[in-house]
Amino acid sequence: MLSRVADSIYWMARYVERAENLARFVEVAMNFSLDQPDSGVEQWEPLIRATGDDDEFLEACSDFSEANVRQFLTFDGDYHSSILTSVTNARENARTVREAISSEAWEQLNALYHFVRTAAGAGSAMSVDATFYDAVVQYCYHFTGILDATMTRGTGWNFANIGRHLERADKTSRILDVKYFTLLRHVSDVDTPIDDLLWSTVLRSACGFEMYRKRFHSVTVERIADFLILEDEFPRAIRYCIRQVQNSLLTIAAPVEPEVNSAILQTNEMLDDLNGLSPRAIIQRGMHEAIDSLQSRMNQVALAIHDTYFAHRTFPGPQMQSLMQSQTQLQSAGR
Amino acid sequence: MNCRVSARTDLAGFRCARYIACRRVMADFPDARSSHIKHIPMSDLTFTGYDPEGFRDELFFDDGTPRPGSRLLIDTINSLPPGELRIRQDAIEAALVRMGITFTVYGDKSGTEKIFPFDIIPRVVEAFEWQHIEAGLKQRIRALNSFVHDVYHDQEIVKAGVLPAAILQNAKSYRPQCHGLNPPHSTWCHITGTDLIRHSDGGIYVLEDNLRCPSGVSYVLQNRQIMKRSFPHVFSESRVRPVMDYPSRLYETLLHLCPNDVPEPKIVVLTPGIYNSAYYEHSFLAQQMGVELVQGADLVVQDEFVYMRTTQGFQRVDVIYRRIDDDFMDPLAFRKDSMLGVPGLMDVYRKGHVALANAPGTGVADDKVIYAFVPKMIKYYLNEPFILPNVQTYICDDADDRAYVLEHLDELVVKAANEAGGYGMLIGPHSTKDEQAKFAELIRTDPRNYIAQPTLSLSRVPTVVGDHFEGRHVDLRPYILYGKDIWVLPGGLTRVALRKGSLVVNSSQGGGSKDTWVIAQTGHSLPTAEEAL
């Protein structure tokens, strides 16, 4: 498969996953504030903290009001990871590789794009309600399902699988990190009874509430950490995601042998890290520190994938890109 | 025409095709239907009282009775419940948006996307007429191919005094870099899209030859797919010839070019990228042929071969269907500032290690002055009388012609020799005195670059305009593949000028498209089910 095509498929999947997670984060926050108008727990600021893009937000907005946060995360076309931008980028990536994905998948992504664009054109984020975010999540599920149901398990699908799971692991880790920080200011509080309702938002944000209940019933911080980080079977747990990445990497024929393939080596190391962790150790060491180190591991995996499979082409700078664009449009204009 | 016999001969195949078509309608359009139904004004889109208004109409005789090949279609439309046709037209437009068959308006920052307008009433071409067109196109391509080969070799046609040397030397699309090239099988123009028009005298004329990167064939296939969903019944009964095998024919044509002795030749489609207005087509053709769609940066020249960068390293490429102009193809051979091409590609081509379709340099025959000589080329290279005539063309470089043109600017259509897409044109009868003066000046300054033709009365086809039908002018672009043999796609892109009275059919200038139905000859068996799909 062409490196450019693999790269685009990978990013297409990442952006769809990003949009899905963002939409769920917002929906859960909206839902919670309906349940607990006076809980005193700030719902909106943590969502921005979870993106890691606080600086960009504060440049655009003065405070963490619901209106500001939702607009920024949903429809802000200038923010590189809003739902609108993610969906647009996913579709642009898909457009360059339309022949490599199934028509059905393309049509679904195209429909998602038109849905979000139309909503964005109709007003601010405050004019859409929870059903909008629900619909975005549904569109994304549908897209992922179509990819799985229509694509050969070849190189293309595997790169999509890698993109999807790396993004998902990243989002699970971020929401856990931020919620942990906001909900549990002092480590000594770990063993005290916790607010079931508040902590369940963490699980709901990672779409894991029902599955968690089946597994553990009662909510404790340690079990949540276990479930979202170390679980082997829950599809949004970090360990599960990284194993998916590992499987796909092993399936893709690479330019080099596995023993010297840095993408595979990095993934193996990350899994070794995860295997060495226990929920207790994570909490004792500090959730934030543990997640920080997992995130830097994930970044290394992503970089290694890029270097191994996509990078043997030089990407033109922005200036060259605009020249390319004008030359492209000149080609056969109207012929 | 005996419809019953035809339906029986190939019943199984068509039942299958129709079943699939119907199922798709059910699956695809329920939302579009229910959401549009309430907005439909109850009008009757029927042909009752349709008037060709003195123009040559492709579906009706002058007295308003249907031509034989169109009768079934017209009866079917007349018998639809009120509002039904409008619903189908709207459903088609919704489907085009959903499938993403849209283009972004250049320079529009808000990302507005449009569909290429599609009109539901097809153009019908009778079997005997198609026979004539097909024979004419095959003859023309053979002559043009000989011409391109000749001008890049010994230029016998100039030596023989058939084509003036000055005209060739001054053709902007003549590429000296191509001199002495020997493409596989001496075929230069593998894919051609020739523009035909029908004049009020009933004759079919060639308006221009597009030997570079003619686009539009994906719309032919897409239009057909859509029409099969909308009128499955009329389709089989009318004996419409299939077009869906174009991608496999194209693949065979490209395969035939492969210069390297390899068991599985690597064929790719080279696109300038997503900002190109024909990008959808590039990606569609690659997908339908099951080959890679590459951009310039995906390819690299190493050790006298072309390779593509893949996740498994570099892989050799044997045949490139390039949808990128000569100028941008290789910065080492053509435009040095090209960001879209592959440095060194021409060298590999010259060595015969990769094949290009079309061969570089074919644009020389698209020059509108050289076009005027095609009938003479046919005589010169093939020693045959031409089958399809050219439109009468005045060459401004010729003193007498020029004088005539300058006298009659208000009647003629003036075209720049090297423009395409309806640009650089003056349509005399629709122009102002100022525009005529501007063109008079352009012609005097650079006579070689201009030709003029009489303003033709293009034939018309009924077209949905609001709540009724009106005749709109059309042209026709059939596609010709030159591989082992020459094959003409039975049909082609019917472009329609949607503005009332307009003669400009280009999509960039308010044109739309229609399906083109070529009727199978009576007595000939229809294609197999597989071909029909």
How would you describe this protein?
The complex is a heterodimer of chains A (335) and B (533). Chain A contains 16 helices and no strands. With 335 residues, chain A is an all-alpha fold. In chain A, α1 packs antiparallel against α5 and α8 runs antiparallel to α9. In chain A, 47% of the residues are buried. Chain B has 533 residues and is α+β, with helices and mostly antiparallel strands. In chain B, 34% of the residues lie in helices and 20% in strands. The interface between A and B is large, with 44 and 51 residues.
Summed up:
Chain A is an all-alpha fold and 335 residues long. Chain A contains 16 helices and no strands. Chain A has helices spanning 3-35, 44-51, 54-60, 66-74, 83-96, 103-122, 130-150, 155-183, 196-205, 209-216, 221-230, 238-251, 262-275, 279-285, 287-310, 318-330.
Topology, pairings included?
The complex is a heterodimer of chains A (335) and B (533).
Chain A: H1 3-35, H2 44-51, H3 54-60, H4 66-74, H5 83-96, H6 103-122, H7 130-150, H8 155-183, H9 196-205, H10 209-216, H11 221-230, H12 238-251, H13 262-275, H14 279-285, H15 287-310, H16 318-330
Chain B: H1 3-9, H2 11-28, H3 30-37, H4 71-78, H5 84-98, E1 102-104, E2 113-115, E3 118-125, H6 127-151, H7 156-159, H8 165-169, E4 191-193, E5 195-198, E6 204-208, H9 217-230, H10 232-238, H11 246-257, E7 267-270, H12 279-289, E8 292-294, E9 299-302, E10 305-310, E11 313-317, E12 319-322, H13 326-329, H14 345-350, E13 355-357, H15 368-371, H16 374-382, E14 394-395, H17 399-407, E15 412-416, E16 425-427, H18 433-445, E17 450-454, E18 460-465, E19 468-477, E20 479-482, E21 486-488, E22 493-497, E23 511-518, H19 529-532
Parallel strand pairs in B: 3-23, 7-8, 7-12, 12-13
Antiparallel strand pairs in B: 1-2, 4-20, 5-6, 9-10, 10-11, 14-17, 15-16, 15-17, 18-19, 19-22, 20-21, 22-23
